């Protein structure tokens, strides 16, 4: 087969075609103009040839753009969706996260809905991000910080500054003449517990006072709680008294005050009717529960420096721009400013007069806030003038804050944080420099209340627990709170309130009040649930160590055992004179004086462990024997027999047998259904959580911890005198301490045998330890 050669094209090399010697480029381009235009169109508008996202630069392209249009720029999304529809592929969108799907459409409405059940503080959202929250007394309150801050909060209260929001305290306004208010409080208080409401130290409004409230004419029984009060300075016959009440006692105190005022009005009417002068009876007392103030508590020596740095008094020029001043114009601004500057050099609030009330008008605290968190420090070179500490000026406590009319105006004219930032950014010529005399921001009236802390050096170090309480109008909580935080204050919650009361040697909620009983019920239920969640092998068998009430202090049974009579009602001794006598008797080992209702009396004590050992809540305070003092190392409670141990084992065996029978029965039923080819349960039923435990569980719990207790005094080898209501390691004492109560007759018996020390034993231990007792005056 012969090979055929390929023919050439050009005639110059043997081909058939004669090519031209030159080419006209213009003619060539004009003949290809249609093709060039089509190519240019396809490059500039690729939607006809390729997808839109392919027209983006390479560095902006993402693989997910092919099915998620939101990854493209906004101008290209619509065309991309159209392309996907033409290709027949529906646009696939990723399902939003559960958090995104459950978010409320209107966040403010959602917050208002959640506040219907429990009241929120103005600082709630700030706390909710940083604290463990708890529900107490109808409020949602911060309990403890999420970080490990227990020791840090103590250091703040002792050496720096601890900041707490106590705005949950309920303010009650009482209006009437001094005589009427004095007679009303005479029925619900007693002068034996301290100065009365109408004492000369408080009546002019320069100092804050405390009072113990009881039911009408029931002292010393029927204790309700402790309140703080401030008189509003006024020259008129009708005066105003403000009470700040703990929320657990607010409703009861309001009803008691109404009853006391009603009985007073009836008595006045009867007296006037006998004298035939009915028209001379003055108007009745008016009692109102007002809207809540914001109240912050700063504790520690550095709290004075933080308050001094955060607050700047205004002058008369800045008052013109505040609309609320037309309703109530403040007075004595220059004198107050001079006094505040004079006391600002103090190194600690404990140096100032006790319970001083200072009414100031200050600039917006956001103008004083530092850019970075810093620690406020005092000028240590300058000393405070002692003349300013001797006398409190009468004009110092005047404040427009007590006028309720101005509160709405202040809240209405409040500049929000967004508006404040926008205003500062726009008007500040030098970035970072804030004009403190800016007339656009209104001035704010505040009231400062000094707290002296410990005043007894034999009990606690002088000045521990001192600080300031600042009362602020509603709406301004966060501006003041964040300013204090930025100046170095450490935030705390309810746990720190209880810890501070324990370090001060006080009981947070006394056991003879309704609030204290409710608190004991809550603690008992929590500890009981925690105990029964443990498996039986990990539970402490309290029957074997002679503890019949590990989660509660049975005060009624304790007093009944020491009086040989059934006691249904008891009280805590608060007579300061009697408490001082008892402390003297303990120190000198003398016999106690005879008092009225001694069989129903509990004496408050502060217990300090003499050597090693720690104290827990509900620990026993026991009566020592004379020989125990020389044999403390080997002093243990002997093991006791558990009478219910065998019953529990038998009950458990029967329960296991019944469970096995039920299991066999269910297995047979299942097999029968399978043989008959009947449909089984295709869907697994959800496990139903029982709200109440079964009868078996209730019976077993009763065998572990019997609910019926007949006696507590002679359960162990050492007689029980009292209980520790709160026990832990005390940082102020550098040892384990406790706040507790002892039956009066038991304390008398202890001193009669010539001893002034007691034995303590934890509810989970058999070891007895020696401890010293000190009478607590601040109950």
TrEMBL record:
Which keywords label this protein? Nucleus, tRNA processing
Q: Which residues does UniProt call coiled coil?
A: none
Q: Name one GO biological process term.
A: tRNA 5'-leader removal
Task: Please state every residue range assigned to the domain named Pop1 N-terminal.
Answer: 28-102, 110-176
Which residue range or ranges hold the POP1 C-terminal domain? 601-775
Q: Name one Pfam family in it.
A: POP1_N
Q: Which PANTHER family match?
A: RIBONUCLEASES P/MRP PROTEIN SUBUNIT POP1, RIBONUCLEASES P_MRP PROTEIN SUBUNIT POP1
Q: Which organism is it from?
A: Spodoptera frugiperda
Tell me the ranges covered by the POPLD domain, including all copies: 467-555
What are the subcellular locations of this protein? Answer: Nucleus
Instruction: Supply the name of the protein.
Output: SFRICE_001609
InterPro entries found in the cross-reference section: Pop1, POP1_C, Pop1_N, POPLD_dom
Question: Where are the compositionally biased (Basic residues) regions?
Answer: 92-104
The segments labelled Disordered in the record are 82-104
A GO cellular component annotated for this chain's UniProt record is: nucleolar ribonuclease P complex
